[in-house]
Recover the amino acids of this structure.
Protein backbone atom coordinates (compact mmCIF):
# COMPACT_ATOMS: atom_id res chain seq x y z
CA UNK A 1 0.00 0.00 0.00
CA UNK A 2 2.87 2.39 0.82
CA UNK A 3 4.62 1.79 -2.49
CA UNK A 4 1.41 2.38 -4.46
CA UNK A 5 0.77 5.63 -2.58
CA UNK A 6 4.31 6.82 -3.32
CA UNK A 7 4.00 5.98 -7.02
CA UNK A 8 0.71 7.90 -7.19
CA UNK A 9 2.33 10.85 -5.40
CA UNK A 10 5.26 10.90 -7.83
CA UNK A 11 3.04 10.50 -10.91
CA UNK A 12 0.45 13.07 -9.87
CA UNK A 13 3.21 15.65 -9.38
CA UNK A 14 4.42 15.11 -12.94
CA UNK A 15 0.96 15.89 -14.32
CA UNK A 16 0.56 19.28 -12.64
CA UNK A 17 -0.12 21.87 -15.33
CA UNK A 18 0.81 25.51 -15.71
CA UNK A 19 0.49 28.29 -18.27
CA UNK A 20 2.33 31.54 -18.82
CA UNK A 21 1.76 34.14 -21.53
CA UNK A 22 1.14 32.07 -24.68
CA UNK A 23 2.81 28.83 -23.50
CA UNK A 24 1.75 25.91 -21.33
CA UNK A 25 3.33 22.72 -20.06
CA UNK A 26 3.04 19.86 -17.62
CA UNK A 27 5.75 19.41 -14.99
CA UNK A 28 7.10 16.33 -16.77
CA UNK A 29 7.63 18.37 -19.96
CA UNK A 30 9.53 21.08 -18.14
CA UNK A 31 11.59 18.49 -16.24
CA UNK A 32 12.52 16.81 -19.53
CA UNK A 33 13.58 20.14 -21.02
CA UNK A 34 15.68 21.03 -17.99
CA UNK A 35 17.37 17.63 -17.82
CA UNK A 36 17.95 16.72 -21.46
CA UNK A 37 17.87 19.84 -23.63
CA UNK A 38 20.94 22.02 -23.69
CA UNK A 39 20.11 25.67 -23.35
CA UNK A 40 20.37 28.58 -21.00
CA UNK A 41 17.41 27.06 -19.13
CA UNK A 42 19.86 24.82 -17.28
CA UNK A 43 20.59 27.78 -15.02
CA UNK A 44 17.00 27.51 -13.79
CA UNK A 45 18.11 24.61 -11.56
CA UNK A 46 19.58 27.13 -9.17
CA UNK A 47 16.14 28.60 -8.47
CA UNK A 48 14.57 27.22 -5.25
CA UNK A 49 11.17 26.66 -6.88
CA UNK A 50 12.87 24.30 -9.33
CA UNK A 51 15.56 22.74 -7.18
CA UNK A 52 13.44 21.85 -4.13
CA UNK A 53 10.68 20.02 -6.03
CA UNK A 54 13.33 18.15 -8.00
CA UNK A 55 15.00 17.04 -4.76
CA UNK A 56 11.56 16.09 -3.42
CA UNK A 57 10.98 13.92 -6.47
CA UNK A 58 14.31 12.20 -5.87
CA UNK A 59 13.42 11.50 -2.23
CA UNK A 60 10.04 10.03 -3.17
CA UNK A 61 11.54 7.99 -5.99
CA UNK A 62 14.23 6.60 -3.68
CA UNK A 63 11.51 5.78 -1.14
CA UNK A 64 9.62 3.76 -3.75
CA UNK A 65 12.54 1.37 -4.06
CA UNK A 66 13.39 1.05 -0.37
CA UNK A 67 12.08 -2.11 1.35
CA UNK A 68 10.75 0.02 4.23
CA UNK A 69 10.48 3.69 3.20
CA UNK A 70 11.64 6.20 5.78
CA UNK A 71 8.93 8.59 6.95
CA UNK A 72 11.24 11.59 6.96
CA UNK A 73 12.11 10.99 3.30
CA UNK A 74 8.47 10.72 2.29
CA UNK A 75 7.29 13.74 4.27
CA UNK A 76 10.26 15.86 3.17
CA UNK A 77 9.66 14.90 -0.46
CA UNK A 78 5.97 15.73 -0.14
CA UNK A 79 6.78 19.13 1.36
CA UNK A 80 9.37 19.97 -1.28
CA UNK A 81 7.11 19.03 -4.18
CA UNK A 82 4.17 20.65 -2.43
CA UNK A 83 5.85 24.05 -2.56
CA UNK A 84 5.60 24.21 -6.34
CA UNK A 85 2.13 22.68 -6.44
CA UNK A 86 0.87 25.14 -3.83
CA UNK A 87 2.22 28.03 -5.89
CA UNK A 88 0.46 26.59 -8.95
CA UNK A 89 -2.81 26.28 -7.01
CA UNK A 90 -2.57 29.88 -5.81
CA UNK A 91 -1.78 31.11 -9.34
CA UNK A 92 -4.70 29.11 -10.72
CA UNK A 93 -7.18 30.44 -8.14
CA UNK A 94 -6.01 34.06 -8.21
CA UNK A 95 -5.76 34.10 -12.01
CA UNK A 96 -9.12 32.29 -12.33
CA UNK A 97 -7.50 29.61 -14.48
CA UNK A 98 -9.39 26.43 -13.63
CA UNK A 99 -7.06 24.18 -15.65
CA UNK A 100 -4.09 25.03 -13.44
CA UNK A 101 -6.10 24.81 -10.21
CA UNK A 102 -7.80 21.51 -11.07
CA UNK A 103 -4.54 19.91 -12.23
CA UNK A 104 -3.16 20.27 -8.69
CA UNK A 105 -6.01 18.33 -7.05
CA UNK A 106 -4.69 14.81 -7.81
CA UNK A 107 -1.40 15.74 -6.15
CA UNK A 108 -3.13 17.00 -3.01
CA UNK A 109 -5.24 13.83 -2.98
CA UNK A 110 -2.05 11.77 -3.19
CA UNK A 111 -0.53 13.81 -0.34
CA UNK A 112 -3.54 13.07 1.87
CA UNK A 113 -3.37 9.37 0.98
CA UNK A 114 0.39 9.17 1.65
CA UNK A 115 -0.03 11.06 4.90
CA UNK A 116 -2.67 8.56 6.06
CA UNK A 117 -0.68 5.53 4.93
CA UNK A 118 2.54 6.64 6.60
CA UNK A 119 0.91 7.98 9.78
CA UNK A 120 -1.29 4.93 10.42
CA UNK A 121 -0.49 3.11 13.59
CA UNK A 122 -0.61 -0.66 13.47
CA UNK A 123 -2.37 -2.60 16.15
CA UNK A 124 -0.74 -5.91 16.90
CA UNK A 125 -2.20 -8.15 19.63
CA UNK A 126 -3.95 -5.22 21.26
CA UNK A 127 -0.77 -3.10 21.37
CA UNK A 128 -0.40 0.02 19.26
CA UNK A 129 2.90 0.31 17.41
CA UNK A 130 4.16 3.22 15.40
Amino acid sequence: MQRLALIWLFTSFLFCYFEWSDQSAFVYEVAYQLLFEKSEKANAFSHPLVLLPFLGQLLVLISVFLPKPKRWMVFSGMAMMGLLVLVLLIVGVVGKNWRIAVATLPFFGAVVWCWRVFRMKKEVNGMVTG
Remarks:
- The chain has one domain: 2-129.
- The mean pLDDT is 85.
